[in-house]
UniProtKB/TrEMBL annotation, chains A, B, C, D, E, F:
UniProt protein name: Germin-like protein
Positions bound to oxalate: 69, 74, 79
Places the protein is found: Secreted, Extracellular space, Apoplast
PANTHER family listed in its UniProt record: GERMIN-LIKE PROTEIN SUBFAMILY 3 MEMBER 3
Chain coiled-coil ranges: none
A GO cellular component entry from the record: apoplast
GO molecular function terms attached to this record: manganese ion binding
Function: May play a role in plant defense. Probably has no oxalate oxidase activity even if the active site is conserved.
PROSITE patterns (UniProt xref): GERMIN
A Pfam family: Cupin_1
Classification of source organism: Eukaryota, Viridiplantae, Streptophyta, Embryophyta, Tracheophyta
Cupin type-1 domain mapped to chain residues: 24-176
Length: 183, 183, 183, 183, 183, 183
């Protein structure tokens, strides 16, 4: 029998020890040698059991030159990001009710930006030669990530192309290209 | 001075009357004479003041033949939908952590489907001649809607095309097409 | 060993499938051939495992001519009701602190009414020949129902008649009648 | 303009003083010279402004010989009661889903009993000569009270007698008696 | 396998009985024959299984003459206290952001005082000959207690004395005395 | 009239702009030229209006050689800390119920540590020559800080010395010293 409480096992508190509240490795640059030029090193409840029920997690984000964290949402968290190195063009888009307004900003080291609960957002390193490094906190032990390109055009199995054709106001060929590229 | 509590004014409870808990019009088909063939008639806190702090709202959804409610998320709500008339192909996609799996189903009248909190989902009427009608409840007085096509490709102002080109693994020309179509 | 999380087993998310988010049968009129002339077909977490932790459920309500959903409360939910067919006299009563005011309304198809969290409410079909049909959403995966007649006069075992005699300002004989009728 | 936050004004925290967290008078027996033989002296947010947002309140309950706190619910609170003097027959009834089971107990001084969130409950002093005194805490700054007799048979205006006749399985005359007695 | 839900086992609701909501003994003075002259008799979820998920617990506090409940916090609860007998000097201190202001009051029988969520507070019986008795409710099924003297100077193992020396602006010898006395 | 919602004014969402979600300066070392050798630069709702209702804030912590963030609690937040530079001895103490156990660890750059909700904790730079820098996230828009030395021995006005003498098991003279030093 497998049982999940908040998706995680609960430990007998009497058996908890310091290492249950500890993680390491956020000083080591992540591998950004991928198409998007992005790396996320996550310190959430999956790595730190003591975060269970504590509503918080941490992420180190590395961006290659021109690397990006593509448009995504966190279904269960607000995010606050602090830029440590480089420059970063960041933004979120408000909901349909607010007119899908873009709230964007070019960040320099020491700048902080908030991505409100559940809204679509992204980060992009506009520098052609220098990497960027940021640290983000999320208001959940495991906020989840919905990367739009993956969720819309890369789901398994794929969403019916007719749905996507109409949704994005495109011809069938372009949608098939999107599906192919993001599979 | 304008003050917002949960985004809404609170009324002196002593002055509340029956009409503050009432709305009408969910029996009248919405106008689906638009590109997507979709209409949403919303009964939320903006129409029913008595819903303030009550965590609930209702929507009537009309779908033209081949009409659709395109991929979107609700940043602050779970949704449960009941199909009243027609057929409806519905689905949601789990988060990146779960492998972006598509949970889809073809609904017939009287069928009910759940779109879990914050996840990307859609509804599509696959019938070429008959409309469809559904009723949805959301677990928020005002759950918000993030239509992906609008939020990613139709924000005001537009997200930097370089960001979108990389995010969707596309050439610049296709992205410009997407931006143009969804503006 | 039997373990309950929010009163329900939690499933390993990796094993979830589309049918865990699905239910059927809300298009079929319920059987109202009972003393009250009422039927409730519930789509809650007991029928849809995927509703666990999602804070929402749905109900189809059928009313025979002169049928009613008698005065009751939901200890863990707000309710929003939409009338689909017929007419319905609905109401809720505010708490003692507000003077037990009745907020009532005669609903026609397409009308929507809210029963605020935890308050006593009812629905009654005043039509002598036509049935009525409504759909309700509740802000809980399992909001619970406390039907007053059953809870006060039909508990097992019965509440001490002395308590009820005094509470309702009645003679012993009438209370015994109430106990007998609602047992 | 009148504005309510959680139904109460919020004070500038800098202006708070000790008296905002203080109340007096719970040592003085309440007046039980009424039909039910009950008195409730409440220390909630209406008396103690500092309770705002703190989710807690306190009540002193005095019971005349054969006095009772009649069947009622608290729409927004759990209650825990400690008997200080006398004897008290207490009970709550589980919801319809659990079969409306009565959980009752005869309390002696120093006994504690819990009335779970939103469930119907009562207290009755079975002693013909001695009063009883209890103290209760509620898990809300203002939990609300729905006294069943008042809410069902004493609302203003009255609920349609047809509704009540059917709900309680009674003849019209008995319902009119109930309405008259509890008006 | 041992599993904890909110730190407690959940029982199959169908097996619940009246005794799961019951505790006794709050009428018996606790033993205050200790250095602080204090006794706390707790009625929380560890004693009353039915409190699980109900967000409430109760405590009887006995104070010897000059006895005290030393400065402490409850990490998960607000507290409301009613003085039953004697006199009690009570107080809480606001946070650093509010200037660590002391909100203190001398209570007489029947007086009520609130200790807001998470703030440091204490109670002291200033009477040299008479005991005092109070009852407190906490807004948690198990609010936890952090007695400052124990947590800072009596932890197991001890906090590095250098940390404490600097924190309290003291010489090493005084800190060692504090550690020794509170071990 | 001054009104506070969660202690902060709510802005009309339509008027929000990117700068409402932005702060700067977390790249600049804080001034640790004080007795404790500590600096905290806070990015919370007081600096970033867009954090209102978002349940999150960020802090940069600078520690001089042998500097420390003295024992304290956050009444409304969990904290997760990442060490950026130097070494840091960190720890928290569990509640009385768990035996006041110390969970301590010596952190190196890239290490992460969690301080659970409401528990007493501290950080100390044991290095005699090198500073340390850390970043912490808190699960509240404004978690509050209760520095124990200030709250117990530095409140305004002071807590009655008799209370402290007994609480810390000390002679009057030592308590007066503590009060003097921490005033």
């Amino acid at each position: 029998m497998v049982l999940f409480v908040n998706g995680k096992f609960c430990k007998n508190p009497k058996l908890a020890k310091a290492d249950d509240f500890f993680a390491s490795g956020l000083n080591i640059p992540g591998n950004t040698n991928n198409r998007l030029g992005i790396s996320a090193i996550v310190a959430d409840v999956n790595k730190i059991p003591g975060l269970n029920t504590q509503g918080l997690s941490l992420v180190r984000l590395d961006y290659a030159p021109l690397g990006e964290n593509p448009p995504h949402t966190h279904p269960r968290a607000t995010e606050i990001l602090a830029l440590a190195e480089g420059t970063l063009y960041v933004g979120f888009v408000s909901s349909d009710e607010d007119g899908n307004r873009l709230f964007a900003k070019l960040l320099k080291p020491g700048n902080v930006y908030v991505f409100p609960f559940g809204l679509l957002h992204f980060q992009f390193n506009p520098n052609r030669t220098a990497p960027a490094v940021a640290f983000s906190a999320l208001s959940s032990q495991s906020g989840g990530t919905i990367t739009i390109a993956k969720s819309v055009f890369g789901s398994k199995p794929a969403i019916n192309p007719d749905v996507l054709t109409k949704a994005f106001h495109l011809d069938r060929k372009t949608v098939e290209l999107l599906l192919l590229k993001n599979a």
